[in-house]
Every structure is written in C-alpha cells, then in structure tokens.
C-alpha cells in the first residue's frame, strides 16, 4: 500500500546529485527556494520534493514553470494610485485588503482603496531554464532535487 501511495518516482533519474547541488546554488535557485532550512522563501520549499513529485514533473517545472502553478504561488500585481508598483505572491485577499509576499519587502498588507490596478496572475515568478542549462546540468539538477526525499521509516 505504501508503494501505491508514493508520489515520487521509484527509480532514480540519471544525473549526478553532487553536481546538481552545485547547479542549484550557481544558478540562483537557493535565492527563492528553501532546502533543509537554507535558502529563500519566495518559491516552494523543496526539502522533500523528490518524495512529492516524479522526476519528469521536476524537470517540467524547471523548463516550463508555468505549466502547473499551484494556487499558493499565484502572484498579485498591484499599482497604487500614486503609481507605486508591487508584485509578489498573493497570500490573502478580502474585501478591503490584499496581503502579498514581496520578494524584497516581505509580507505587505495593502488597502484596496489605494489601488489603481489589481490583477491576480496565475503564473510563476520562476524563470524558465529551458535552453539555459546544458542537458548535463539539467540531468544533474533533476537528480539532486529528486534525491531530496523524506526519510523512510523502518518496516
């Protein structure tokens, strides 16, 4: 039953996990993604991504980040009446306020009465790495991310 409920791939993908960790750091992934307590918070936390997603999905997320954007990472695009723009991850919206996680300013609560423009973007703030990584770098990065697994319980 545990095997049937597993969400990640059973077979490790091709690639070098050590080299993949270096690609993760060198390409700036850690600026937005948290892994084992280190990194940024402007993207999904990846400490156990290998347990949650198959390697093919991880690869697609790197090459085509807008293919499947979880609602928790939709963006708010706001321009205030005074012309000040804000763009960040939409955290909460009610009748009077919008809360967003701004990449530089952290959590912001903005009153809607001050908005000139407000739009919810169902796209990722992550850039596509399609064509920006060599095949080896991509294989290594996928192998590294897939290796980030929850510890297995002893049976």
> Which runs of at least 5 residues are low in confidence (pLDDT < 50)?
1-6
**Discrete helix count:** 5
> From the helix content, strand content and strand pairing, which structural class follows?
alpha+beta
In terms of DSSP E residues, the strand content is 15-25%
In summary, what is this structure?
The protein has helices at residues 2-5, 17-26, 49-52, 55-63, 135-147, and strands spanning 34-35, 38-39, 75-80, 85-93, 97-102, 106-111, 115-121. It has five helices and seven strands; from the N terminus they run ααββααβββββα.
Question: What descriptive keywords fit this protein?
Answer:
single chain; 155 residues; alpha+beta; five-stranded antiparallel beta sheet; two-stranded antiparallel ribbon; elongated; disordered N terminus
Structure explained in plain terms:
With 155 residues, the chain is an alpha+beta fold. 26% of the residues lie in helices and 25% in strands. The chain has helices at residues 2-5, 17-26, 49-52, 55-63, 135-147, and strands at 34-35, 38-39, 75-80, 85-93, 97-102, 106-111, 115-121. Strands 6-5-4-3-7 form a five-stranded antiparallel β-sheet, with no helix packed on it. Strands 1-2 form a two-stranded antiparallel ribbon. Strand 3 (75-80) and strand 4 form a beta hairpin.
List the helices and strands and how they pair.
Blueprint: H1 2-5, H2 17-26, E1 34-35, E2 38-39, H3 49-52, H4 55-63, E3 75-80, E4 85-93, E5 97-102, E6 106-111, E7 115-121, H5 135-147
Antiparallel strand pairs: 1-2, 3-4, 3-7, 4-5, 5-6
